[in-house]
Amino acid sequence: MRYENQREHPHMLYVTRQALEDEKQREYGKTTTMRSSGCGLCAGIMALDRLLPHYEFSLEDAIQLSYDAKANLKVGTDYTCFGPALAEKFNLRYKMSDKLEDLRNCVRAGGAAVVLVGCPEEGKPGLFTKSSHFITVINEEPDGRLAILDPSFTPTKYETEDRKDKVEIKHGVVILCKPEILHAETKDKTGSYYLFWRA
Questions:
Q1: Residue 189's CB: how many other CB atoms inside 10 A?
Q2: H/E segment holding residue 41
Q3: Residues near 9 by Cβ (< 8 Å), separated by ≥ 6?
Q4: Which residues are paired to 168 by β-bridges?
Q5: Which pLDDT does position 190 carry in this prediction?
Q6: What is the DSSP letter of 92?
Q7: What distances in angstroms separate CA 180 from CA 8, 34, 125, 127, 183, one per listed residue?
Q8: Contact in structure between 185 and 80 (CB atoms under 8 Å)
Q9: What backbone phi and psi angles, to 5 degrees, belong to 133?
Q10: ∠ Cα 120 124 129 (to 5°)
């Protein structure tokens, strides 16, 4: 199992935000890095490894694919562009969905999913992030909990009072979470699940 943590790459440039009207945002985007903006790329790499573990796909490869697909023009990575590009490059089946059952069916069938999560309650941090963030679902446990990889994981991130009772950490970096808890955290209710299967 490959795990990629965006926090480990503070100096790897990943230019973003270049289609935004705000000039300050565009200037800031010229200096963004994998640490600040690369959660979507790390999540995609981990999903790909779940499906095709023998393929080599580096962080540099993911950045270039994002540029080629124009997935970097807004804040972070636009998965409506990056998801299809990743699927096409590796001959994967792909679907975007807002339905929890689609996510569960995907991972039950051996697929993997990248999920856009946010803050369910305005002004309060979410389970996975204080703003907007991509994570990877790699499996469903026998008890129905989802196995998740978080590109911004730290040993203490899930030990806070508002988080520790909602998840269990397994094998050091795998987060186990009930599906309904994850679903409540999704950022975009029209489509936060980016689902991938082997063709």
A1: 8
A2: helix 39-51
A3: 33, 34, 35, 38, 59
A4: 176
A5: 67
A6: E
A7: 30, 29, 18, 12, 5
A8: no
A9: -160, 145
A10: 70
Q: How far apart are alpha carbons 139 and 148 in whole angstroms?
A: 7
CA distance 165 to 91: 39
Q: How far apart are the first and last CA of the chain?
A: 20
Strands 133-140 and 174-177: unpaired
Between CA 70 and CA 17 the distance in angstroms is 10
At 29 the three-state DSSP class reads: helix
Give residue 31's identity as a one-letter amino acid code: T
Per-residue pLDDT reduced to its tens digit, 35-64: 999 999 999 999 999 999 999 999 999 999
> CA 16, CA 87: separation in Å to the nearest integer?
21
Q: Which amino acid is at 95?
A: K
Give all domains of the chain, ordered by start, each with its CATH number. 6-198 (3.90.70.10)
Residue 31: HSE in the Cβ half-sphere, 13 Å Cα cutoff: 4
- pLDDT of 189 reads 63
CA 70 from centre of chain: 17
d(CA 128, CA 192): 14
The phi, psi pair for 189, rounded to 5°, reads -70, -10
Would the pLDDT of 122 be above 80?
Answer: no
